[in-house]
């Protein structure tokens, strides 16, 4: 019974990552016209961010963070951090491909770079937290 429960708990730890991927997929399925309704508002609010879409950083920061949660924060090491970034970038690549089928959207290598930067920032934060926790 205990083995079953621990297996279920390990499986449930990945639910946030699955939900995060579903949200990214749903947002990527929106046409360019739908996105044009709120992106200019955000860029007007923060004019210094005119040249990129900060949502990519935030979404893939969250995705990598949920991958770390799935692995277990206490079990994170350099290899798992790297794996979380690679999984995030791989999902970002499939997301860019998915966008090629959405009206008024197109794949963009710069978006994939922003995805990777967001994921790497999350793993730096996790690694710093991990170092701090080990020192205590």
Comma- or semicolon-separated keywords:
single chain, 7 helices, mainly alpha, 136 residues
Count of domains:
1
Shape: globular
Query: What amount of the residues lies in strands?
Result: under 5%
User: Structural class, please?
Assistant: mainly alpha
Largest sheet: none
Question: Mean pLDDT, rounded to whole units?
Answer: 87
Distance between the termini: 34 Å
Residues in helix, % = over 70%
Give the beta-strand count.
0
Would you mind describing this structure in some detail?
The protein is mainly alpha-helical. It has one domain. Helix content is 75%, strand content 0%. It has helices spanning 2-12, 15-28, 32-35, 39-45, 55-71, 78-99, 109-135. The longest helix is centred in the last third of the chain and has 27 residues, at 109-135.
Question: What is this structure's SSE topology?
Answer:
Blueprint: H1 2-12, H2 15-28, H3 32-35, H4 39-45, H5 55-71, H6 78-99, H7 109-135
Helix pairs in contact: 2-5, 2-6, 5-6, 5-7, 6-7
Question: What would a concise description of this structure say?
Answer:
The chain has 136 residues and is mostly helical.
């Amino acid at each position: 019974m205990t083995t079953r429960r621990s297996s279920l708990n390990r499986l449930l730890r990945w639910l946030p990552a699955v939900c995060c991927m579903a949200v990214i997929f749903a947002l990527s399925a929106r046409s360019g016209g739908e996105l044009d309704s709120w992106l200019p508002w955000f860029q007007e609010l923060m004019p210094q961010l005119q040249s990129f879409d900060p949502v990519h950083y935030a979404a893939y920061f969250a995705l990598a963070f949920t991958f770390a949660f799935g692995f277990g924060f206490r079990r994170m090491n350099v290899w798992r951090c790297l794996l979380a970034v690679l999984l995030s970038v791989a999902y970002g690549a499939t997301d860019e491909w998915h966008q090629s089928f959405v009206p008024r959207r197109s794949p963009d290598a710069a978006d994939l770079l922003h995805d990777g930067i967001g994921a790497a920032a999350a793993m730096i934060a996790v690694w710093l937290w991990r170092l701090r926790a080990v020192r205590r």
